[in-house]
Amino acid sequence: MQTLIELLIDIERLGSREAARWTNGLRTLAWSYAELHARIASFSRRLDDLGVRKGDRLMIWGENRPEWIAAFWGAVARGVEVVPVDFRFSADLVRRIQHECAPKLVVCGSAVDASGISADRLHFDEIPRLPQARLSTTPVTGDDIVEIVYTSGTTGEPKGVAHRHRNICSNLDPFQREIARYRKWATPFQPVRILTLLPLSHMFGQSQGLFIPVLLGGAAAFTDELRPAALMRIARNERISVIVSVPRILETLQQDVARRYPIPAAPSRKGWAGVALRWWTYRRIHSGFGWKFWAFVVGGARLEPELESFWARLGYLVIQGYGLTEASPVVAVNHPFHTRSGSLGKVVPGQDVKIAPDGEILVRGESVTGTQGEWLRTGDLGEIDRDGWLYYRGRKKDMIVTREGLNVHPEDVERVLNAMPEIRDSAVIASADQVHAALILSSKAVDAADVVGRANERLETHQRIRGWTVWPGEDFPRTPSTMKVKRHEVARRIAEGTSPTAMPASALDRILAGRASARLVEDLGLSSLDRVELLSEFESRRGIEIDEETFAGIKTVGELTALSNALAPQKPAAELSNWPLRLPARAGRWAIQQGFVFPLFRHYIPLTAAGLEHLDKLGTPALFAANHTSHLDTIALAAALPPKWRRLLSPAMSKDYFRAWFAERSLKAGLLYGLARLVFNAYPLPQEMAGMK
């Protein structure tokens, strides 16, 4: 493979196969490769109309969607340089990136507010499929730039990494060859759907969301959901094969699974018999994820051995890898059919890796950007055993890699802290892969929580301080010659508990220990993943399942504390049973409706139905809305519809009407509820009560 243009040929060849899907758990949008190819052609035509030519730059700032993929490949087809930007970045950081790279056009999604961007803008919704559009490509070479990737951002001037066709193609070549060996064996399992939870602005996210699905002839899947229960439901309902994530998402899934299901000891049998026995032992969990799901691909941050062994014990494959943005991105990876626990895998062919005398991992090769054959110093410590397996041993440099896989430079956070008059000096370190600040205050009267809250308002979400310590001494330990702060020594003392005001390690304890007026997002800097983790820990401790809308309304620490005190432990809410869809219930429903309900209804209420011919061209799913809400609307609609539509009806009924059944288990209310479900296949829709799933 010389350029990515060659993959556009594969996209056209795959035709009717599924290429991409997006779901929010309720609605799903799916594209075939033919649809994707048509959208790429339409978008490249739109670039022509807007005067965007080869060598110009196009910024994509939006959430993961099939339209993101179409915009990327449309730009590649025209030789336009893509600048992918994380949709979680603040508008201020995006404006600075825009000033740095000067894009001619910005393509944005629904999850961002692009009103402050001065360049011409195009929304995802404006990437239509033009029936007559034919894809023509602009000639490119291996030395042409594909994209400029900004790695997580800083409070200083943003710096981008330029990736050329030869860099990315060199990284994909060994995967293309290896996948070709196994492609025929994957045919019975197609479409192999890869649910990518990393943003497509991230090189690891691109690898698993843009390139590998095409090589597999499979499909990329995306969702905005991060809640563990929602991810399990999506994996089951959308028949997901693989989930790609950072370790932190696996942690929240682990907590939720451990809370929901009994986890007996793992069988001791090895080999295929052992795998089958594990699947049987943990069949409830496998049923929860769906029987097609079998593996996690994890990268972007350190994976704890205990987390890997937990999922392996349940019978799931955990495929760990190691990469860098500058390496385009994969350096080493475990083969799906030959993994080694605790290892980052073996070095990808085409790259050289060696361990420096001080233990630092050094990388060079065609996929490494901007080194001209020199060794790239990764800043990571590692080992390579005699069989060629690479192992991670920690960070050499001070940069913090959060559990979301984002980079934080301590100096950027310290620059904000040290500009505040209440702080004489600060030292930022990693604590549990999160940002922790050691503070030397100007006086004992300073409220450290208030200062940190105001500092977080000026930091990006991934840079925000999650814990802090008031340093007891007059100064930090420093090197004799350069007088630089010894961060490792600061971290060691805090870990040993020599500082009296270190924040609690638990996320929930850390939040509840703050001032009541502190806002969870604006002051404490909680990201969407933080809120998911907080909700999971909250539910685990209280032994309850909390309505997401209730939790979403919590804005301050005081409101969170009040919710914690108000809730009593209870059994988790069960998912809605599907017994009305089984054959005996369907047969009983038909008999009751035809023999009793409809004749009685028509006897007392004459019914006229007009416009039934409009149903002939109507597909599913469809929503019928009555213009007068009464208990007879459902019967009138069911009696008016043809039998083939009547069988598909699932009316919403007020959950609040059956409050006595859900809250008190009243037998009378329970009988009425069961009768409504049996006779009309109705489902409970709450108006004020919790529990909408």
Keywords for this structure?
single chain, alpha/beta, four-stranded parallel β-sheet, globular
Mean pLDDT value: 87
Unreliable spans = none
* Terminus-to-terminus distance: 46 Å
Any idea what the shape is?
Answer: globular
Structural class: alpha/beta
Described by strand count, sense and barrel closure, the largest sheet is:
13 strands, mixed
Measured as a percent range, the helix fraction is 25-40%
State the helix count.
23
Question: Could you tell me the radius of gyration in angstroms?
Answer: 28 Å
Our estimate of the beta-strand percent is 15-25%
Explain this structure.
- This protein is an alpha/beta fold.
- It contains 23 helices and 26 strands.
- The longest helix has 22 residues, at 165-186.
- The model has no long low-confidence stretch (mean pLDDT 87).
- Helix 7 (228-237) packs across helix 8.
- The strands form 6 sheets. It has a 13-stranded mixed β-sheet with strand order 2-1-10-9-11-12-13-14-15-19-18-17-16. The protein has a 4-stranded parallel β-sheet with strand order 4-3-5-6, with helices on both faces. A 3-stranded mixed β-sheet has the order 22-23-24, with helices on both faces.
Layout of helices and strands, plus pairs?
Elements (H helix, E strand, L loop, with lengths): L4 H10 L3 E6 L4 E5 H17 L7 E5 L4 H12 L3 E5 L5 H11 L3 E4 L11 E4 L21 E6 L9 E5 H22 L6 E4 L6 H14 L2 E5 L4 H10 L4 E4 L1 H14 L10 H11 L1 H7 L5 E4 L6 H9 L3 E7 L6 E4 L11 E3 L3 E5 L4 E6 L10 E9 L4 E7 L4 E2 L5 E2 L1 H9 L4 E9 L2 E8 L6 H9 L10 E4 L16 H9 L11 H6 L15 H15 L5 H5 L4 H10 L16 H22 L28 H8 L2 H4 L5 E3 L4 H6 L2 H14 L2 E3 L8
Parallel strand pairs: 1-10, 3-4, 3-5, 5-6, 9-10, 9-11, 11-12, 12-13, 23-24, 25-26
Antiparallel strand pairs: 1-2, 7-8, 13-14, 14-15, 15-19, 16-17, 17-18, 18-19, 20-21, 22-23
Helix pairs in contact: 1-2, 2-3, 5-6, 7-8, 8-16
